[in-house]
């Protein structure tokens, strides 16, 4: 065997070992902390277990490991919590001071659910007054009930198909002061474009790439790779501009104040592009269509 062949085999083994080590290195995180969970696969973690369905996978883990367990989306460790007191601490008590950061997901990086530190606090502080219990309980609950009454008690009901339009109407009203009534008009343009933006497969090639290589999100954005349809984003961008123009002449103080907050927030943040602006305004309130 020549020296060149020997070096080629050696380097191939080194590259293979380093690659394998990269794929499994974070997978001992929960074991060191004594937190149980399903065994992860190299590179994929427990991501492939979602094939059986998110609910089924979570239910199986709850029955096997209890109220707290750890999973891995690719190389990223994720703590799953079902204990009410811990959830209250994470989402309410210590939310503003400790649990301010979430994972970064490419074009979603300006959403309320993923921005970090002071930026998260600023956006949350700006939006919170407009999602009060009073606004969320307006007229849409009555529409929702009336829509349910129209259905036959003997026919099965798809929970997502029932609650998604209701959530959409509430968010559209609280966020954009728009009454779209997607409960009774599921093909309304605003709702249709909203569906298109968030109607993606968790097993799409793009999501698999971002799961295995999270750092690729920035690179894909720089080369012009679009996660969402340009027409859908332009629809929301145009709609928001029209809403601002229409409401600027109204005397409704709360609407003017909210639109002013939107305007100033975007005006003085020169790093927000069209995609980020739309996703920033949706602010993590997307409906699981």
From TrEMBL:
Keywords, comma-separated and alphabetical: Endoplasmic reticulum, Heme, Iron, Membrane, Metal-binding, Microsome, Monooxygenase, Oxidoreductase, Transmembrane, Transmembrane helix
One Gene Ontology term of the molecular function aspect: heme binding
Compartments where located: Endoplasmic reticulum membrane; Microsome membrane
Keyword Ribonucleoprotein listed: no
Cofactor(s) the protein requires to work: heme
A GO cellular component entry from the record: endoplasmic reticulum membrane
Main location as per UniProt: endoplasmic reticulum
EC number per UniProt: 1.14.14.-
InterPro entries registered for this protein in UniProt: Cyt_P450, Cyt_P450_E_CYP3A, Cyt_P450_E_grp-II, Cyt_P450_sf, Cytochrome_P450_3A
Catalysed reactions, as listed in the record: an organic molecule + reduced [NADPH--hemoprotein reductase] + O2 = an alcohol + oxidized [NADPH--hemoprotein reductase] + H2O + H(+)
Transmembrane segments: 6-25, 197-220
Pfam families (UniProt xref): p450
Family of this protein: Belongs to the cytochrome P450 family.
Function: Cytochromes P450 are a group of heme-thiolate monooxygenases. In liver microsomes, this enzyme is involved in an NADPH-dependent electron transport pathway. It oxidizes a variety of structurally unrelated compounds, including steroids, fatty acids, and xenobiotics.
Entry protein name: Cytochrome P450 3A
Lineage of origin: Eukaryota, Metazoa, Chordata, Craniata, Vertebrata
